[in-house]
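It is worth pausing here to work through a concrete case rather than discussing structure prediction in the abstract. The textbook approach is simple: state the sequence, then state the predicted structure, then interpret. We follow exactly that order.
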Amino acid sequence: MNEIAIFPLNVVVFPEGELPLRLFEPRYLDMVKRCMRKDIGFGICLISKGNEAGVPAEINLFGTYVRIIDWEQLPGGLLGITVKGEKRFRIESSWLQDDNLRIADITYLDEDDDIIPENYQGFSELLKQIAERYELEIADEEERFEKATWVSERLAEILPFELSMKQTLLEMDKPLQRFDLMQALLEKVEAGEFNQI
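Step two, the predicted structure:
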């Protein structure tokens, strides 16, 4: 197991996804300084109850280990950082430090590297269309559109699913399971059963 700091947020980050953050709380500023000094990352977990700032929030037990890839000092004492997801993990135990920073023992979760089966190729085409239409940087990564895990994670972060659904998708170990759930959600939207996903 590995011991890491946890940053509770109202967002779900997937491996290889990037996220800009603006920090002001001392506990998280200290966390970032320590991460940069030691060249380590931290974990991001979706909040299940509570808020991002102030009293420590309750969190989901599955999250993503991220590393800082860019930073800048912002006006008003804020620190801006950009993080990139690396690995999914499950929290085995956690506790609060004196400064209310949550520390957790985690187990990393395996990712497979399977090619997308022919009957799931529609998801690869959907991601290509979105990437080209909105001129996303991933549009240039042609060889990766055949990888089931990468495609399922990119769609899960791009499509406007509710946070609870994104969390469910993050927790799934198999990309084909993710595709099946996304298909079911998209079909409900198309049938008019949901106004929002």
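Step three, interpretation. The chain has two domains: 2-108, 118-190. Helices lie at 26-38, 121-133, 148-158, 163-171, 175-190.
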